[in-house]
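User: Okay, second chain of the day. Same drill as before: sequence in, structure tokens out.
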Amino acid sequence: MQVLIADIASGRLVPGAHLPREADLAQTFGVSRGTARECVRGLEERGLVTVKHGRGATVLEDTDWDMFSPDVLAALLDGARGAALLGEYLECRRILEISAAGLAAERATAADLAALSDALGQMTATAERAPANPAAEDLYHRADIAFHRAVIAATGNRSLGRMTEPIHRALATARRPLARPELRLERSLPEHQRILRAIAAGDAPEARGAMADHLSTVERYLREYEAKITEGDRAGDGRAVS
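Assistant: Same drill. Structure tokens below.
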């Protein structure tokens, strides 16, 4: 299934294209027809294809794709559209997390503050080891996501938690292109510390400002990532990159 997802995400299989029949897919990939059928069903569940009796599976426009699916996201991040998708996630985070930080400052309980402190403690403990330790790098990312989940939880708004959970799940896949391990001690950790201090102090305007500034940092990382992709595309086309 991953091969077909990559073919669709990369545009090799364009919208309107028909997938091979299940029997042909089974032969191509050396699997049973039952496995091929499950594969097509998985593509359908992710919004990549529509299946109609007698016509088989047809590739859908990207407006129908499940952009929160880790499989779809991973495939898109490997292509030219990865930066644009990360930009969409960042817009979602700005809309939701800045206001959430202000609400958290107004409503956070002692338990909420403890959860935020624990997550920040994990981030701090793994920050120095992460650049040279893949296991520590994974722990850092999990702690970072846990911190932002804790901010949402501190709002006490269960509906907001349900809305943001798909974004936070996707971040587990999407964070690596924007990771800057060498800047964590001087930038990322102080930014998270500022968010926590503002929430703990009950200062809603400062909490919103701290979150906005942190997401602005993430946006700068995104621009750097976009520039790197552009340079890679130019190099691949044989043009000089200065």
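The two ends are 39 Å apart (CA to CA).

User: Thanks, on to the next one.
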